[in-house]
Design goal:
The complex is a heterodimer of chains A (448) and B (141). Chain A is mainly α and 448 residues long. Chain A is 76% helix and 0% strand. In chain A, helix 5 packs parallel to helix 9.
Chain lengths: 448, 141
């Protein structure tokens, strides 16, 4: 029963997320609809956690917020369905049954792997109870004293509250700090990450290409592990995929309201994890470049509008509540580290080793990808703006590289305990780029 | 070559499904998922239940000592168990040391605990919960 309640508790926020997305971006074609459905988790949970956080910061009871929010979400959905029903266009594309069945099998196996992982590790893996779910317990159980979470030692009390407030709201409905709450959340995020990748590739290319992208992504044991260990890394990867994908969609369609969602998603990335602040730089750079042309300026300001609220909350959180981050507050000679080229060699070496062993499958993923690219080749379909992925991913990796160069922690320890998760942040965006670039099964069939 | 290119996507999809199936069968057959209550953190939480319920209402922060305090060597602090303890007793924040009225003790070797507490704290109350877990009340604080 608790399991069902935990999933049911997420539904109002998913509905809220969809309503917000559709209000901002009211496209009615089925390909856009699919993207909007898979954006709803990030927007719904993210906006909910922002307002929930502000609510408890004002010393108001979380239970009242959870109920009000759910009532509002249901009323908003009802209003949208009955009073202002959007007329979505019917899907006219015929789907290849073989690929539908393969996709269905992939989704089924992914769900089963996620489920069995959660049974094996109901509390997640170490950082889940050290840094993430412990905060949710403070928020849910602490009442007016929830800020005692900032007194915690030997972990990171400066981490933002996206997941903590989300899980605490679920527990309000479940009426206990059950492990099923975070399990349900991470299950949904894992499914929605794969779903968003599918929806974006489907929008930009076609169904078969999207199916292939999603199936490969879901088959990686690395994704299952990172999804259900109950950290914030796959959540950040999902939000970065959303922001990057929406930016990419804007470059194709020039639909200016998409920019609001792109700003909102990347802003929520910084509310999910500190590394999200770095991602804002890369995505924002793309939007600054679009603003260099006159026709891009409205979209740029829309992006800033979407980014403003989550960034403001993060700023207030860091300024008034969160202690200093351990990487920033530790002393030590930065110049000495910058001039120590042995550190550069160590980082690049470990990064190379990690890249070869990232996926958890018996073959090196990077090798498999290179082979596919060589055999399949580039698509003849021109997709605008592919360069942006190089900028965003390159800048994100460069920032991570700089963090490792300057880290006050033992470098080998820091690399060992975090490098795989940093690669995860850009992996889903890299998949989007790859499957936008590759010749699709449809193209290959037509060629022969 | 054309045939390979044409069927490459389908082959990749089937290979992916094979990876996913293999991963599932491997995990399923290991059997570790059958007893979630036997998982390390779940067992830890079960052990902490009684101590958590014994914490007085209204207390937002308590001290924490383990074998490192008994031996006088702070570097011996078991950080993993400290972090697990924090997770289990939240929303009470724990602070390493004995600066608070209420202190959680977590010891592997508690043979000389009473004597050490008398020397260190003076008057105190001690309640044990098994597994080396204690709730210490520093009555003079």
């Amino acid at each position: 029963m608790t399991l069902l309640l935990s999933f049911a508790a997420l539904l109002p926020r998913l509905l809220l997320g969809f309503c917000v997305v559709h209000f901002i971006w009211n496209a009615t074609d089925w390909k856009s609809l699919l993207v909007k459905v898979f954006l709803s988790a990030g927007v719904g949970f993210g906006v909910s956690s922002l307002f929930g956080f502000l609510w408890i910061w004002l010393s108001l009871p979380l239970t009242v917020y959870a109920i009000l929010e759910s009532v509002f979400a249901i009323m908003l959905t009802g209003w949208m369905v009955f009073a202002h029903r959007p007329s979505f266009q019917k899907m006219t594309e015929r789907l290849d049954l073989t690929w539908v069945l393969i996709l269905a099998a992939g989704v089924f196996l992914f769900a089963m792997n996620l489920a069995i992982y959660s049974l094996q590790y109901p509390h997640g893996r170490p950082d889940a109870w050290i840094n993430w779910n412990v905060v949710a317990r403070f928020v849910y159980l602490g009442g007016a004293d929830w800020q005692a979470t900032f007194l915690r030692q030997f972990d990171h009390p400066d981490y933002p509250f996206f997941m903590a407030v989300t899980n605490a709201i679920t527990w309000v409905f479940v009426r206990a700090e059950s492990t099923w709450g975070p399990i349900a959340f991470h299950f949904v995020i894992s499914i929605f990450t794969a779903g968003l990748l599918f929806a974006l590739v489907n929008h930009l290319r076609d169904f078969k290409q999207a199916s292939l992208a999603a199936i490969l992504f879901m088959s990686l044991p690395f994704i299952v592990d990172q999804g259900m260990r109950q950290y914030a890394d796959l959540l950040l990867a999902y939000l970065m995929l959303a922001a990057g994908g929406l930016t990419f969609l804007y470059l194709q369609t020039k639909e200016v309201r998409i920019a609001i969602l792109a700003g909102l998603m990347i802003g929520l990335g910084s509310w999910a994890k500190n590394e999200g602040l770095a991602a804002i730089l890369g995505i924002s750079l793309i939007w600054v470049l679009t603003a260099l042309k006159k026709e891009g300026r409205l979209a740029f300001w829309n992006y800033i509008f979407g980014l403003a609220f989550p960034l403001l909350v993060v700023f207030l959180f860091k300024l008034f509540l969160a202690p200093s981050n351990d990487l920033i507050s530790a002393g030590g000679s930065s110049l000495g580290k910058i001039l120590d080229f042995g550190r550069y060699v160590t980082i690049l070496q470990k990064a190379g080793e990690m890249l070869l062993n990232l996926s958890g499958i018996p073959l090196p993923l990077i090798g498999l990808i290179i082979l596919i690219m060589m055999l399949t080749g580039r698509s003849a379909v021109h997709v605008n703006g592919m360069w942006m992925f190089g900028v965003v991913i390159g800048l994100q990796l460069a920032i991570y590289f700089g963090i490792y160069v300057l880290t006050p922690l033992d470098l080998t320890f820091h690399l060992k305990t975090s490098l795989d998760r940093l690669f995860l942040h850009i992996l889903s965006m890299a998949f989007l780029w790859l499957f936008s670039w590759l010749r699709s099964p449809q193209e290959l069939t037509k060629e022969s | 070559m054309k045939i390979i290119r044409k069927h490459m996507p389908l082959a990749l999809a089937v290979l992916s499904l094979a990876f996913a199936s293999y991963h599932f069968v491997l995990t399923f057959s290991s059997g570790e998922w059958r007893n979630p209550s036997d998982e390390m953190v779940s067992k830890w939480e079960d052990r902490l239940q009684a101590l958590r319920e014994a914490l007085p209402a209204g207390v937002s922060q308590v001290g924490y000592v383990d074998d490192a305090a008994l031996s006088g060597d702070p570097s011996q602090l078991d950080v993993n168990e400290f972090q697990l303890m924090q997770y289990s007793v939240a929303p009470v924040a724990i602070q390493s040391g004995m600066a608070h009225e209420w202190i959680i003790g977590n010891f592997r070797d508690d043979e000389n605990l009473e004597m050490w507490l008398t020397e260190t704290l003076g008057a105190h109350e001690l309640k044990g919960f098994g597994f080396g877990l204690y709730l210490i009340h520093d009555v003079e604080n």
